[in-house]
Amino acid sequence: MRRFLRPGHDPVRERLKRDLFQFNKTVEHGFPHQPSALGYSPFLRLMAIGTRSGAIKLYGAPGVEFMGLHEENNTVMQIHFIPDQCQLVTLLDDNSLHLWSLKQHSGASELREEHRFTLKGPPGSPPSATQITAVLPHSSREVLYLGTESGNIFVVELPSFRVLEERTITSEAVLQRVPEDYCNRRSCELVEALREHPKNPDQILIGYSRGLIVLWDLQNNKATHHFLGSQQLENLYWQRDGSKFISCHYDGSYTQWPVSSDNRQPEPLENLVPYGPFPCKAISKIYWQTTKNGLPYIIFQGGMPRASYGDRHSISVVHGSQQTAFDFTSRVIDFFIIFSSEPAAEFDDPSAMVVLAEEELVVIDLKTAGWPAVHPPYLASLHCSAITCSHHVSNIPLKLWERIISAGSKQNVHYSNMPWPIDGGTNIAPDPPQRDLLLTGHEDGTVRFWDASGVCLHLLYKLSTVRVFLTDADPNDNMNTLGEDEWPPLRKVGTFDPYSDDPRLGIQKIYLCKYSGYLAVAGTAGQVLVMELNDEDAEHVVDHAEADLLQDQEGYRWKGHEKLKTRDGPVRFEAGFQPFVLVQCQPPAVVTSLALHSEWKLVAFGTSHGFGLFDHQQKRLVFVKCTLHPSDQLALEGPLSRVKSLKKSLRQSFRRIRRSRVSSRKRRGRSGNVSEVQEANAKFDQDALQEMELAPVQRKIEARSAEDSFTGFVRTLYFADTFLRDSSRHCPSLWAGTNGGTVYAFCLRVPPAERRMDEPVRAEQAKEIQLMHRAPVVGILVLDGRSTPLPEPLEVAHDLSKSPDMQGSHQLLVVSEEQFKVFTLPKVSSKLKLKLTALEGCRVRKVTVANFGSCKTDDYSENDLAVLTNLGDIQIISLPFLKLQIRYPCIRKEDVSGIASCVFTKYGQGFYLISPSEFERFSLSTKWLVEPRCVVDVPEVTSNNHVHNKPGMENAARKSRSSADCGEDERKSGRLMEHALLNDEKVLKEIQSTLEGGR
Amino acid sequence: EFRRFSLERSKPGKFEEFYGLLQHVHKIPNVDVLVGYTDIHGDLLPINNDDNYHKAVSTANPLLRIFIQRKEDADYSAFGTDTMTRKKNVLSNVLRPDNHKKKPHIVISMPQDFRPVSSIIDVDILPETHRRVRLYKYGTDKPLGFYIRDGSSVRVTPHGLEKVPGIFISRLVPGGLAQSTGLLAVNDEVLEVNGIEVSGKSLDQVTDMMIANSRNLIITVRPANQRNNVVRNSRTSGSSGQSTESSLPNSTPNILANFLQGEEESDEEDIIIEDSGEPQQIPKAAPTSESLESLTQTELLHESTQNGFLPSSEMNLNHSAGSISMEYEVQDPDHKSLEEDGTIITL
């Protein structure tokens, strides 16, 4: 029989596997790592973000997103949408131009690279001659103007990228009519800005870096106006009517210039240094927006006084007497203003400002008084404080979901009510099948609740545990308070704040019971908090207990951090999850495992020293168990004594750098033999480097022993109602697995509900299993008589799960980093095993039971183990027979933080961090697949659905063009994201209706 | 003297009883003797504990041939794999050892008193340039004691000579198991770990594989020094595992007969402590008779086709008592330390 059940030999099973498992990386959540460019199309109402790794991401209405990747993986320098087209052009730092377009295929739009092009100069010319500095897509949609470092402007045809040499605007031609003395003082230098006249497409404004600005007539191929700027130019902006333009400069000034037909060489109307009179930093970009009431909005980036505010990343908005300098916590990459793009409109009437900073996206509502921020539905800054752990809960009951949302909405009152202004495209993905929560724990002691049901990961609610503790940080230290007559009028915006006041607050483990609303979180300094959801603000005392995990073992000294000090007396908590019990482990080592049983009202926690069980109903510690090996000094002393905290070492190295700078300056001043010292230093460095190269990396081969370090480290805790003592009576039990391959099982006696408060919960050790291979135990699971994993607490009570089979014999599955083993219960005898490390050399990093449904039939589903290995592979292993089903490479094995951050869902999806700020979402299931599906139509086509916000139709020519495009798209076949459709009739129907509705 | 008597095959009883029976039958109640038998391969194997006694009884077909020697003039070299086929006349050898012994034999001790620490195996199926070494880690407190590194070696491929990455032994710890065997040396290239090729695997992967197999590690190496390779003689025996040939010049003292034929996986013997009782090895759950049969078949298949590859399931038929007690000793300190909390009673 066994022979025939082997994987790979059973065609029926093979077919079933195809219906169950499928690997897809579906969408990236969060904020792109290292953004480098921003673009916006007022026509499509889509925003594009380019990154230093060559990715380009488009965002529109929530759920509408596209991603592309340049093959070269070079930094994206500039992004320009082709006016009134579904196309955009990117410029990379290798000077290549790429044309991307959004095309429809089987009902959904896709972003594809169409052409690439590198500008080539005449043979022998220096590379700077063709180094592109400015790109202007002309409104005719036929050509691109490319300003270069040499000062020449090349014209290329779209979409072929053919250089139209006869139309090149050379710097010589531009300089012909410039006054002699101006020319002598400065050469043209590079083209800093190119701007098309807002009313007359035949005129373009050319700004050179040394200050010269020229209005160029494309028809007659000559300069009509010369504007002789005296300051180094940064950027240009046309006023809406084309009568004036504004230039901003390196010295922090901006200048208004009139454009009239009578004066060919006009003087500036106004020259202003907004944050003068002391030297200021450059204003790198400026907008001049007209409004109905006459007062313009002047919005510019930078310009802060160099000495005192030179380190600020600011964008100032000036509107009459109102002026605010929005102060960002990270460097501003770029920004744009959303304003009325309808050509017929007389005024700009800006509605919102969208700022891409290095670490977050901030949108400011310019229509509402006070200019509040808009809560973004996507691009959440996941890493506003570093993520320390994550926890996923599938299928949240509606009631809990609503309560969390309502708690969150009370926190978001300071946000604007404005609908999300970037709303291009249509999301046609089916509604998410269920409500999923992703909880992230952060270094600053907060837990963030994300709606992870769909494509847009957005923040529902933020919980802070800081309030329970006394910390050095002054809670009244509010950065947002704005002094009355403070100048410049800075206002902090955004949520990115990577600096934690106290690393001990960091959250390490989270467990949420979705049925009862109980939440347990545990942190770096051995703190365990149990919380309850309360819809109202409340002030109460948090019950406090201590768990001494060393149990009077003498002679050990904890050299790590101290435990957190608690606040005495009642503490005020806002609506949401409010802590009512605090257990602090002693020694205050980081909590390494946590389990909560909401039905028995018990919480179990483990550290590197041992584990404990706390009754949060009676608020009483039930027992503690020390797992330490007496020789394990390292665990006793605490990791911090050996491994300095990263922050500390960073701080120290900064100090060192500063000191060395100071000292080197001094040295230079005093002695002449600096070069000698430097030489010696260089030599030393080189020697050290050589030494490193000579000593090859080698690995010690040694069997694990009981004396190894951190064998007592508790890796996993698990509650189960099973047969621990004999096969006739089952009882509650707690299981713990350690780093040294030991499994402890405790028999629990929980009093019945009516006497729950009267009798104590009792625990007694029933079993101890020592795995001889001594690998860390990473998972413990009990399978019932039908070999189904036991349900979660309260799952049966809520009728969401069949009650477990208590008739047949239960089995215990122990997953170590190296092996999977099934034992019988209650008498422990080994039944089955699967060796992983011995055969493949990989180790288990994460393991979860996942339910896989068949995409063919609704009534078939099975439970399997989803396993992530240290090589970044994902394996699916069947239950209860432990047969490898399928293996997918998922994460690069070098990406240690990605592997460490991975979290599986109960339905075969998962998340892992691809950067500090981004989760990649993947799916192993054919049935549960969350991926973006959206359509971007040229607005005319869907104008009947989208009358609001959309610019009206402009000309018939464009209309015919766009419909021709559509026809072509449908004929073209694509390869992406078609799997889900073809099987799902509902989706097909939906697409059909969308298409028909569009026509 | 010859004696013939019958035993009940299904209930052989304990070795002690059997030993007593033999002494009684031969009327030598106070003489220490060595008991040996010939197994199905014709090897002379010792009977000195319950396990190998049961094994002996179970393999008797139908007769069990037992040799008894007085302990003081026993020929220890007579025991071991292939002993019966190697020596033309074992019987005469056993009965009159002096006939063949020219010089006094060095008495080490009997297999019950020492354990194998290493062996060269599968000489007959491996190319001469390779060596498959088995390190018996269990029961010894000696560290394995070696390090591995990345490196490159030259291979002959269809495209000519190619430099390919490989894994090499980089260091032997003095006094470690690896060094004391004399079978492994610095710069030996590691080709396989417990039957699995390492090519294409990273240093970390190979490290993990070796550690996972550390209790019974079999590594196939291409020795850096190729001068000491085994010179094949035209032995016809199909039995694997024996390499104590006199032609192997300098490593003989360390090479022990691979007498544990049905190799158990001692690393798999997890230990359970029930209700604060004594630690016990976790038994294997009794499979149904049908599957047991097929299991044994697969087992045999493994043995014959994939020599050196560890069978995937446990056949603890002749576990040596020595290694069991050693495993318990490893456990001891653990329980002593845990005694304090009163939930476990130590041994």
From TrEMBL, chain A:
Residues 945-972 are annotated as: Disordered. GO terms for molecular function: GTPase activator activity; myosin II binding. One of its GO terms (biological process) is cortical actin cytoskeleton organization. It holds the Pfam family LLGL. It comes from the Eukaryota. PROSITE patterns: WD_REPEATS_2. WD repeats lie at residues 69-110, 433-451. GO terms for cellular component: cortical actin cytoskeleton; plasma membrane. Keywords: Cell cycle, Cell division, Cytoplasm, Exocytosis, Phosphoprotein, Repeat, WD repeat. InterPro entries: Lethal2_giant, LLGL2, WD40/YVTN_repeat-like_dom_sf, WD40_repeat_dom_sf, WD40_rpt. Residues 273-372 form the Lethal giant larvae homologue domain. It is found in: Cytoplasm. Part of a complex with GPSM2/LGN, PRKCI/aPKC and PARD6B/Par-6, which may ensure the correct organization and orientation of bipolar spindles for normal cell division. This complex plays roles in the initial phase of the establishment of epithelial cell polarity. Belongs to the WD repeat L(2)GL family. Interacts with GPSM2/LGN, PRKCI/aPKC and PARD6B/Par-6. The complex is enhanced during mitosis. Interacts with DCAF1. This is LLGL scribble cell polarity complex component 2. The lineage of its organism: Eukaryota, Metazoa, Chordata, Craniata, Vertebrata.
TrEMBL record, chain B:
The lineage of its organism: Eukaryota, Metazoa, Chordata, Craniata, Vertebrata. Pfam families: PB1, PDZ. Residues 234-247 have a biased composition (Low complexity). It comes from the Eukaryota. This is PAR6B protein. Belongs to the PAR6 family. Residues 1-71 form the PB1 domain. Residues 228-254 are annotated as: Disordered. Its main location: other. The gene is Pard6b_0. GO terms for biological process: cell division; centrosome cycle; establishment or maintenance of cell polarity; regulation of cellular localization. One of its GO terms (cellular component) is bicellular tight junction. SUPFAM superfamilies: CAD & PB1 domains (SSF54277), PDZ domain-like (SSF50156).
